[in-house]
Every structure is written in structure tokens, then in C-alpha cells.
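Quick one: C-alpha cells for this chain, please?
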Amino acid sequence: MMGTLATVMAGKKIATPEDRYWADVEGDIEPVNNVLRITKIRVKYHLKVPRDKVADARDSFSFYITRCPAAQSVMNCIEIKDELVIEETA
């Protein structure tokens, strides 16, 4: 998911090196029919981006998941919650 979002942002000329782009990820594992399963994934992306690229970053985030093979493969059986935290830079 992180790679897909970075690729979409690159299309809008937003750089995503690791000192300006990272994610905090959590998940829940619960028994479903007596089998432990991953039931939820929460991803909080962090992005430091110039003020003039904030709108492009938000736009990229608004649709990246529809292009993400990993998310599209599991979203019918694992709940995915994502958010983007933007820190504006000069």
C-alpha cells in the first residue's frame, strides 16, 4: 500500500524519501470460526510536503487504494482504515 501511494504521488512530482514519508501500521488478529485471522489493518501515513503540493498529496491519497494490488486483494476480508497526516514544509 505504501509503495502504491508513493507511486501515485511520484506522478504528481511529490518526493517520498524515508525522511519525509513513513507509515505507522497496526492490525487486529481475532478468532473467526476458531481460526485466528487478521481482521483489521490501520495505516497512518506521514508525509512532509511543500505547501504548494498539499492539494496534490491529498488528491493522491483519495484514490491510491483503488490502484493498490495488496489492498484490492484483501479488502473484502480485512477491514482497512487509512489516514494521511501532512506536515507542510517551506
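Residues 2-89 form a domain with the GMP Synthetase; Chain A, domain 3 fold (CATH 3.30.300.20).
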